[in-house]
Amino acid sequence: MTLLIPSNHQDLIERVRHVLSLAQSVGFDIDDIQISEVKESDVIHIDDSERRQIISSDLLSVQMSNEADYRLHYHHGFVESDFPKVMQSMTLGDVYIDVHSEFERKDIWSCREEVIKASSGALSLTDAQEHFAWFIVSIVLDFPLEDAVMLARAGSVSRETWPSTREQFFTPVIENSHLAIKVGWAVRAATSVFPTLSKSSLGLYPVVDNVEWIERLLKQGIKTIQLRIKDPYYPNLAQQIQKAIQLGEQYDAQVFINDYWQLAIEYGAFGVHLGQEDIETADLTLLASNNIALGLSTHGYYELLRVVQIHPSYIALGHIFPTTTKVMPSRPQGLVRLALYQQLIDSIQYGEKLGYPTVAIGGIDLQTAKPVWDCGVTSLAVVRALTLAADTQHVIDEFSLIMAGERDGFR
């Protein structure tokens, strides 16, 4: 991969090199990233065999490139109340840094079909060049736009280290009338109280698609399990869910129902697991009032910091490795990112303690379990590692040995 930076911006080049060295220090492979200086250019080019991206900014040129994939506006002078009009001209990849509003600053951007997103915090940006360097490196490392914006802000605070604590990050905005940001759960997020879980109670976490597997694995000693039936027209869906919940009560196990939160409430489930899209339509207040534990899927910094505002019972981190069990909205996260997400989560309040329970998911088997476990997660979610095993009890026992052993590396 080649990163082409205008040669008349030497300070930026040195800052990018420094941020890349910080990325390397936490485990990112940067060996194939080459920085080249380009004369008579006013944009950043990222070229490799899979993609060609352009980053433009008013730090490089007064005139933004219309061909750029990302356009960072630092010297815009807008305040939050201006944005109903500004949004009419925003296109995919526009990012406005340090938009002033009462008592706080906001970063506002357009991504994924030009949906407006924002994050906010008390600190104003003190070094635009540093922020820009972090943004460039985040895009080079293939973080999506929303994560790149979050990392750039946090990195310009941490500076000499990779950002790792909640205090270094801005907070994703989940409700704002000026920006037309509104989610179904925002008003109730702070008042919904979901059960907290003991980290030791999760253990190995199979995800299966029928009640027969639920019964079989609970008989073999599994204490946390998820019923994930993708087809809403699945024959006897309600009966499957009811039976799974009853089996959980029979074996004193934590059975989570994926997606079908209404049926989970109707039959008194221990827990429900929801994806990012599902929380927009689920009645979180009703789930909380029924004392149902809530697990939420996340795929990066932005989603993680977004859902902790709901105060879920656990956070799923994935997908770690390539998986064929479902269509995923993101690329595999890998071990380096998993460890970094876990480090951030360990700095966030959970009940009376620090650190949410976390479930790593996606392509985990006996060969990959140990390095995933060493990232500091609370639980390992598995699918095919059990459902395709010739001897499920042996596989359960092997996972148990891994999870009972001492951790290496991250923690």
From TrEMBL:
CDD domains: TMP_TenI
EC number: 2.5.1.3
Domain of life: Bacteria
InterPro entries: Aldolase_TIM (IPR013785), ThiamineP_synth_sf (IPR036206), ThiamineP_synth_TenI (IPR022998)
Gene3D superfamilies in the record: Aldolase class I (3.20.20.70)
Pathway linked to the protein: Cofactor biosynthesis; thiamine diphosphate biosynthesis
Recorded GO MF terms: thiamine-phosphate diphosphorylase activity
One Pfam family linked to the record: TMP-TENI
Boundaries of every Thiamine phosphate synthase/TenI domain copy: 210-386
Protein keywords: Thiamine biosynthesis, Transferase
Stored SUPFAM superfamilies: Thiamin phosphate synthase (SSF51391)
Top-rank EC class of the record's enzyme: transferase
PANTHER family: THIAMINE-PHOSPHATE PYROPHOSPHORYLASE (PTHR20857), THIAMINE-PHOSPHATE SYNTHASE (PTHR20857:SF15)
UniProt protein name: Thiamine phosphate synthase
Lineage: Bacteria, Pseudomonadati, Pseudomonadota, Gammaproteobacteria, Vibrionales
